[in-house]
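Here is one chain, start to finish.
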Amino acid sequence: MKEKQKNRTISPWAWIPSLYLAEGLPYVAVMSLSVILYKNLGMPNADIAFYTSLLYLPWIIKPFWSPFVDILKTKRWWIVITQLLIGAGFAGIAFTTPAPFYFQATLAFFYLLAFSSATHDIAADGFYMLGLSVNQQAMYVGIRSVFYRTATLVGQGALIFLAGYLERVTGNIPFAWSITFFVLAGLFILFSFYHRFVLPKPESDAPNPDLKANDILKEFVETFVSFFKKPQLLTALFFMLTFRFAEAQLQKLFSPFLLDPIEQGGLGLTTEEVGLVYGIVGIIALMLGGIIGGIAASHGGLKKWLWPMTLSMLLTAATFVYLSFSQTGDWIIINVCVFVEQFGYGFGFTAYMLYLMYFSEGRHKTAHYAICTGFMALGMMLPGMFAGWLQEQLGYNHFFIWVMICSIIPVIAVSLLKIDPAYGKKKDQ
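Its structure:
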């Protein structure tokens, strides 16, 4: 009884920030740090975008093993174990970056890291839904998104700055990135140790020791069948696959754009400068956008805020259209553009995450949420694969205009959704 009381007193603030930092960091390492690593090592944009987009594969297929995470062991156990495996993956990248066969070796470890991270996502997202009420989920979704995106900006900010600083001081690019990944490896050992003690133990987070192989298979099939029998399935899938269609292309090219020299259409920033702008201004903007988005959704509900959030997320791509045409060297203007883009993303992405949780409601909500995020990853991988080739054909100016045109597709997807007006609101409203 004392143990249960102790668990109830654990504030969500004690574990949501650290849990979603731990969820976001390996993702940003696979999707963003890999881009800048390979860019600095001399690979062309088309190859970078293609091969790093293929790293989305573990997040796409994770629904196929999500039922086993849902059934075997506790979500808490999976979180602690996968954080140790993620640490091992970072260590492998750190060891092999200076090797002559660095591309093949680091890509293999990035895949190992991606599979471990995808499994961690299943457990962490399931734990979030088991440990909080529906209203708490709406209230903390902004905080959750903030720290997840803060992890992205730590990767694109502090870690890139560290790598850039070490590149400049040592003159050795592989060594600089090796040290950076060793830092991440040590951090995840600490994460695993911390969460082993601080995560609460909700009664609903319990394995079923009586399950047999046939029961697991039956549960697995039932999970997928029940998902594809949900109402408004086709509309929901179209939304999941296309909401990030424009952003998926932008994400693969904004770092190369900032790093490429002026004569190649970029802004000519150093690795350290890219780390500074995203690590300071970007984090502040993202936190403000995410917090305001979460508070707005918990008061007005998802349906009320869906359109404002969608438009705020899509229209911020205009900042890169401006930067690509102006190629400004004004540090203040660059930071203002990044602030607008990150604030809009932090505010708008709240709606997307809330809809995934809304559509996942039901008996198998943990596994169904994993299926939803699998479709989300597919919607990120396919546009990202051709984005680098397209940029090389169009140049940065016309590529970012193309990204703005692509924003029409998510608008169409949002217009087709049907959402319960009460979802996400406080109960007393």
